[in-house]
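Lecture notes, structural biology module. Today: joint structure prediction for complexes of two components.
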Amino acid sequence: MNLLNHNELKFEQADNGFLCLKISDDKIFEMVECMPLFPLTQPDNYISVSSRSENGTEEIGIIEDLNKLAKAQQALVKNEIEFRYFSPEIIDIKKITSKYGVDQWEVVTNKGEKTFMVQDVKENVLIRESGLIVITDIDDCKYQIRNYHQLPTRARLELEQTLL
Amino acid sequence: MDRIILPEYLKKTFEDHFTGEKAYVAVASDLTSQITYGEEWLLATEKELLTYSIVNNKANLISSHNLSDIKAIENINLTGSGVVEINVDSKSQRLIYYSNAKSSDFAEAVEDIKALIDGKPLERRDKEWKRKICEICQSPIPEDLNKCPRCTDKTKTFRRILSFSRPYAKLLSLIFLTLVAETCLGLITPYMSKLFIDVILKPEAKTGLYINARWIPFAALALLTAYIGQNIFSSLHLRLAGVVGHKTVYDVRAAIYEKLQQLSLAYFDKHQTGAIMARVNQDTRELQYLLVDFIPLSLESLFVLIGVGVFLTILSWQLTLFVLLPIVATVIFFKKIFAKVRLAYRRYYHRRSRLNALVNDSLSGIRVIKAFGQEGEELNKFDVKSSSFKDAGIDFEVKWSLYSPTLQLLIMSGTVLVWFVGGQFVVGGKMSLGDVVAYSGYLAMFYRPIFMLTRMVERITSALSAAERIFDVIDTEPKVKDATDAIELSEIKGEIKFKNVTFGYDPYKFVIKNFDETIRPNEIVGLVGKSGAGKSTIINLVCRLYDVTKGAIEIDSIDLRQIKYHDLRHQIGVVLQETFLFNGTIFENIAYAKPEASTNEIIEASIAANAHEFIMKKSDGYDTEVGERGNRLSGGEKQRIAIARAILRNPRILILDEATSSLDTETEKKIQEAMKNLTRGRTTIAIAHRLSTLRNCDRLFVIDEGKLVEVGTHEELMNKKGIFYNLVSIQTEMSQIMALSE
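The predicted structure, tokenised, for the full assembly:
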């Protein structure tokens, strides 16, 4: 496992929408992609950094802890991660209406307000002991509740009525 | 193009910039370049590709590219989202982001833009390509359904459920009659109490004598007759309802199972086995509950409610007005507060299921647990789930112990009120004592139907949801089916032609791209490539488990889709990587390929497959039970049974998905011999992993990311020193390392 040295990494946003990575001045990678290896359980740790070229995508190395990067650098990597693993975090639930096996969720996410539909809760909602909930809607879009115990009380009640 | 209608705010900006030009492609995204929900647009004119951001209903041009500068354009699918990327001056550029909800729109747009770049006419899309939107609620319709589940006419669904009971119409009429009789007899009994008190057991005012006492035996007999009659009709109605319900559900279950057997593999890719099993078992059980219990009981409740209501009003309409107060309070409490008990029970039930699943998982994997010494860890996991189950149990009991007596108290308050108000009415001469006793009896009968009907909407909704899910399966059209003009092909020669085949399990995510090659009759072709390259997909397409998205596969110059499915399947034999054996004997498992095969044929096939040797060493020979999924046999034994199956079928086209698991040298040799016997004189497509198999192939097709990248003999490809050469080198190195480590 090639763990990258946080102090040597310098990410830049290129004009073409990709990230660029310089490692200690002598190594420059273009079209850099970042992917969390544990997107659900450790979203800020173990970020695989790879570079795309004509020969395919090759891993440059792994960032062990994203929080050790400078704030501006973190923001660049997080933006790239959010793009590659788009799974908005639900921070409040306004209403869940169940009708004939289809639930309509009206929620507030960290990416804005959203209404989506979930068919067959048993199949499309994953509940972990830690309180993490992953919901997949009928469009195959994913949403997360990091810890449902920490949702506002009313939102938690809505959730319990639907999921339990 | 007429179909493109731009919103006003975008239309104006676009027309200002590109006066007189026309947008041939226009698609709205639901994400911004900052990866937040928002609106951006991708537009293409005859010459340019444009992106716009929309902020406060104002459009701003973000980028513009000449179509002639764009070397390539494609959709990159990611988790939950996607991006359109273009290649300009040999450099990739991200253009616009979208969530999965917009995938099909952008897939279509990119295809159209490619056509514009190539100067080709824009294609009309297959309707499958477009996201289906409900015309009523404008919500997206799940891909595998043809109707919006939220806007489906529920009365239609209900009628459809009942239509399954139509063959039993006479029995249903009988159920109705028994219900009426049972209800009428039930209503007699409280009234008899009134007669006893007010007439039979009432002494004459003047003499104090019980002059009507002679009626006691007759009245008692009448009461007994009413009770007996009520119970006989109750038993009869339960029995008839059970018969009709079970027969109806049997028919529904048969219909759903028959459809499941007809459905294409694509359906099973999208639905988990557990969910499908839930359709067959739980949803039909829900229907059974509706038909066997709920509808008859609701009907009975309705009759009782009307009958009791009439008697209560006749006995004293004034008292009825008083009694309505606790009844309304009870109904509100039952619906609003008591619902918490039901929620607590659901949570308790849910956690019990999770605990059961854990125990099941743990016991199934007990060997692994012991091998890794993870007993303690498993105990911890069990403890967490068991504790959560315990908490849910305690919560349920606490709620039950609190709310159940409260509910009882509310019910009893009605009876108290009857005696409190009714007692004063008796004193005031407005009612007799018998009236109050009868009234109290009728009131006791009044609550059960109320509770029943209070939950009616919930129960019917739940049953209708189950019915919808069942009908969804029954109504799903198999994606792969015989064409109306399909032809019979009883004898296949074995030429397989791939004509520019493109395919994606999702219609806009291609996993096979422009595959174009021909396999000659009786040729053995090996498919080679990295895991996920598309080898198994090619096999699935040849077997017509899926239909190609673009292009065609021809067998003996006939499009696969024009050949009768039955003829095709009967001439293709398959030996899969993971041999699935059904619970049964070795004989039954080999005969599965040809149920009408004679014993001789089965033994011959086993000998050719080098399976006979191990079978005869089993104590029960061919009658040996293979166990669940064949787990009583070794990997090599299972493979040879699969080969025997294929030999018995004697197919013209053979598909081999070679097992990757390593076998001992002796077994490997036996399987190789069996394979030689099997492939002789047949067109064979093999997904080859072993070098020995690769050498036996006439030609090898090397597949990389869904594209056919190299074709040739083993020798030719080795000399070419391309992808195949690299794959073989890696495998040889691995074999040497493995040999050294042994």
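Point to remember: Residues 6-84 of chain A form one domain.
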